[in-house]
Amino acid sequence: MFKNKQFMRYALVFLIIGVLYNFLYSGLQNDHLNILTPFLQSTYGWDDLKITNPVTIGAIVTIIVYLIIGAAFVKYGARKILVLSILALALGCVGISFAGTNYTLYAIGLFVVRVLVVPLQMGGFLLAANWFIKYRGRVLGIITAGSPLMSVVGIGLLTSLVNSYGLNTYIIIAAALLVVALVTAFGLRDTPEEVGLYPDGADKAPASEKEEEGEAVTLMNIVTDSRAWKLIISYGIFQFIIMCMMSYMAVRYISLSTPEDIPNLFVSKALFWLSIGAASGIPMSYVLGWIDDKLGSIKASLVLNILYFFAVVPLAIMPQGGNNALMAIWAFGVACMTGGMPTMHPCVTSYVYGRKKYMAANKWIMTIQAIPMAFALTFMGAFNQAGKLTTAYYILIGLLFVSFVTILSMKNIPDANAADRDYAKAEAK
């Protein structure tokens, strides 16, 4: 695709800013709660639910936001909506930074962050679907590496900054968001056709696009389509689990700390393994994208499902004081999970509905998936406060078996853009 120099310029800008989209999305959706929760508990004495209730409320509101933002993307394009939402996201961060002991200001700021982080990921996915078909998986594999990168360097960096500057750390985050907004406004375009180009840097329109013509995707189409429900169930489970896992990692390790773990197990041991294991897992985002491009989204989704077990099982069986082998496996699984899920979600949705109908279908699918995800923190918080956090992890393992069977049932679903995909051409030969 880099043979076309004009296409290459836009593609490179997108690859760089796409990594930042996912880095910031992962950090501001749930990863920062790993640092925020212990800090606010020790500084102000707030409990789990008081700290995370704004996120839970925000997550409930995002059920509608997915639909509204998706519709806005379809009508106005990704770039305009992205810039506006990133600027508002920065304001939410500023609100947290100035909150101090003012719980109302803290809650409003955190609520805004949780709600307006959604377009950051959705917009990046839409741009990837618009600009790439043949290389879609690998491109998404590169930009979604930003999520495990947050696990490798971001959590440690945030921990250090919060320990040094407290909530003023969010001013630094707001400044980074302003830079991202400027690059989005002036360095990107919604579609290659907007600047006289075609997806993947090709010299002609995609051959599969004529097959995509037809009626718009409506809610009725979604609720009566078994393909949609299989996507909703399988990737809804993935979304729910990733929210549960990423927001309660630190809490889980702190609960397993011994007197020898100073200040706690998460800081003394788990962060080290998170850096090592997650670094080894970052390439898995690209590997899953490569599998998608070469073997199809269903097979790649099955691989992702298996990798989720690497993240969840070790935390379920982790002993008091930790275990180095289990922590290494967990860290690798976390990177595969946080990088692989955002890689595969747009891939498999595009696989089923095609480039032109991707966002029209995705807005409904993600809206429905957001319903259980909105209660992920409440789910984990309730088990934690009951002293049964281990049980919560075993329930997550059970859900992974459900998603695996659901994805297996999708094996005969055809690829909407098969005519422009390498693996489909190879099968045809």
TrEMBL record:
Coiled-coil boundaries: none
GO cellular component terms, semicolon-separated: plasma membrane
Topology term for the membrane: Multi-pass membrane protein
SUPFAM superfamilies per UniProt: MFS general substrate transporter (SSF103473)
TM regions (residue ranges): 7-24, 55-74, 81-99, 105-127, 139-161, 167-188, 228-250, 270-290, 302-321, 327-352, 364-386, 392-410
Highest taxon of the lineage: Bacteria
PROSITE patterns, sorted: MFS
Subcellular location(s) per record: Cell membrane
Domain Major facilitator superfamily (MFS) profile, chain residue ranges per copy: 1-192
Chief location category: membrane
Protein name in UniProt: MFS transporter
